[in-house]
Design a protein that fits this description.
Blueprint: E1 14-21, H1 25-38, E2 42-43, E3 46-47, E4 55-64, H2 65-84, E5 90-102, E6 105-112, H3 119-138, E7 152-160, H4 169-179, E8 194-197, E9 199-206, E10 214-222
Antiparallel strand pairs: 1-4, 1-9, 2-7, 3-7, 5-6, 5-8, 6-7, 9-10
Length: about 220
């Protein structure tokens, strides 16, 4: 595993962190394709940039360097426990579209398939995430107290664009999932894009030199 990288700057004293699965280039290609298909349906979307596409396992928020090191140790303990329980690298299949409502705007995301041939990989993900969260809590780090709902954020701050024929974002995304072949009842599991998981990464959310938002990998633990 790679150890955390600590640049000698004042900014490194406290950083906004999360643990995530990073994605390969072909998966990013597919997610960008879906973003492009959805764009005419969305009003005022803030699309997730290609480099920032990821799947969050646990959000940690602002942490000190000591807490950052604690998080890395917890990641190491979780992957070791996962391996001890028979876990190894696995694959996840991209699923249908969904959203989280934020006041009058929505966060649009792509979920994961959990049935058929995708069931085993999804089960491995849930086991790994539970082990990770438990180890983080044991180190004294606070995590979000909400059920884990795996997803990849595609856009934020969205509203349904005029002329779509749908009043709610939920209805729009349900229809588009079916039309795009993403809904579970439409596409065969074997034909759905999938990606491999062979490690977990500690990520830093920041604005380098005051520029665009970037998610930088600080450390990684292999499965």
């Amino acid at each position: 595993m790679r150890e955390p990288n600590h640049p000698e700057t004042a900014e490194s004293l406290r950083r906004r962190l999360f643990v995530a699965l990073t994605l390969d280039e072909s998966t990013r290609d597919e997610l960008e394709r879906v973003q492009g298909l959805l764009l005419p349906d969305l009003a005022h979307p803030h699309l997730t940039s290609r480099h920032n596409l990821h799947l969050t396992l646990v959000f940690l928020g602002e942490q000190t360097l000591r807490q950052e090191a604690d998080a890395t140790r917890a990641m190491r303990a979780a992957t070791r426990a996962f391996a001890d329980a028979g876990g190894t690298s696995f694959r996840l299949s991209l699923g249908d579209l969904g959203c989280f409502e934020r006041r009058s705007r929505s966060v649009v995301w792509m979920g994961l398939r959990r049935t058929g041939s995708a069931r085993a990989g999804y089960g491995s993900l849930m086991k790994l995430q539970a082990l990770l969260e438990a180890e983080l809590v044991l180190t004294g780090l606070k995590t979000e107290r909400r059920p884990f709902r795996p997803h990849i954020t595609l856009a934020r701050g969205c509203r349904v664009a005029p002329g779509t024929g749908e009043k709610s974002m939920e209805d729009l995304l349900l229809r588009r999932s079916r039309e795009f072949g993403l809904a579970a009842e439409v596409g065969a599991d074997e034909k759905c894009p999938s990606f491999g998981v062979d490690g977990i990464s500690l990520m830093w959310s920041h604005h380098p030199a005051g520029g665009a938002l970037a998610y930088s990998e600080l450390s990684r633990c292999s499965l």
